[in-house]
Design a protein that fits this description.
Oligomer: single chain
Order of helices and strands: EEEHEEEHHEHHHHEHEHHHHHHHEHEH
Shape: globular
Strand content: 5-15%
Number of strands: 11
Amino acid sequence: MSPMWRVGRMVSALALVSLVACPVGSASPQGQATRAYGQPPVWSGCESFVPDATKANAIPTARCGTVSVPVDYAKPEGAQARLAVIRIPASGDRIGALVVNPGGPGASAVDTVVGMGAALAGSEIASRFDLIGIDPRGVGHSTPELRCRTDAEFDAFRREPLADYSPAGVAHIEGLHEQFVRSCVDNMGVDFLANVGTATAVRDMDVVRAALGQNEISYLGFSYGTRLGAAYAERYPERVRAMVLDGAVDPLADPIEGRIRQMAGFQTAFNDYAKDCAKSAGCPLGTDPARFVERYHQLVNPLVQQPGRTSDPRGLSYQDAITGTVNALYSQRYWKLLTSGLLGLQRGTDAGDLLLLADDYQGRDGSGRYTNQQDAFTAIGCVDAPYPSDSAAWAEVDRRVREVAPFLSYGGFTGSAPRDVCTMWPVPPTSTPHPASSPGPGKVVVVSSTRDPATPYQAGVDLARQMDARLITFEGTQHTVVFSGDACVDAAVVDFLVDSIPPPQGLKC
């Protein structure tokens, strides 16, 4: 079996996302937490966060800064983390702050707002709202940076097929997990790892809200950002003016059920891709729908023994072929790269487009340097929900995933499977699955795509019901849709954010 993917939305790249739960807590700062409030951001230019002059010039009014928060709110005088914040001021009649989180967990909200600010320049959103990006602790430009492994160690990990589920193969994979955990502890320390979850992130977000001088905020969250938003609304309902949650994660789903639903969603997206590919002569998966999965396995399975040819000396590993495929299934605009990579495997020539997709997914640039998004993803996800520790439970996960997502399966069912890295995590979870709550009538809109591979449509339906929110249904095969070009969705979202006009009941776009 291939690796157990936990997948979600990054804005400029696509990365893994965990299925985690909302915290419960007080609606206002109190006790020791109050020491974090009352500090203004330390504003300056954005050169350190946005070194690309072209990007910086596209957002000339942006200001960047940091806000300090305690690593452990129970120890306010102890070690501090510094949260990176970007603010692009409203260009017109200002309503307030629109806080944006792109998901992950592990994606940089600062980087997202840089791109969004340029893309939305001249729009009503940019005119009426300060666009705010807050990198959660350990993520993006915040410090300390949550990083567990070196670039060379990550490259080495990606060469591992992670496909052998024999007893010896399972022991090897679990050994890799244990090595990763030790590296995280050695590099970050147990105290930091214990305080990186969503339960802490929502407290950080409220500290920044106060530092910005806002009594309430509007919020736009994508993928895991919907979980962060729902958690904030639960803890600080009176601070929510309007909230749009796109690509919803159901906080009631446990991580196992959430994973099964995701894998089923990716199989649906794979089927859609294969049907579209079959319309063109020379499709590497052929034209027979009954054989799409079989043809795919014929192309990628040999990579377990021998990497595929690419112009990059690394070649294409089996793990990277799977990762690249998953990346491409997020959006139809990536399908042509998937076809090109599979054709390279079929012809024995250059499968470099699959490697390109895998590098994008894993956050590796052309110089071989990785972002820390995947390390942050794992560290945050592992404290955001409890995971079963017994091996039999993970064998059952393997069996079920083989049923719902056969394109991801390697070989036959062995009756054993490696336990998730989160079962070995050195600190306990700080959240548990439970339903989201409403911050008040008319304050939340959920957007869900009918064929979203990473956060299936039903999760949006369920989240909307839990939060007493209006639901916008987008008919399409893609992960998240707000401000990606669909006029129907965008018009409804703008009306809601600007004028508090809810979308019509049952709106479909």
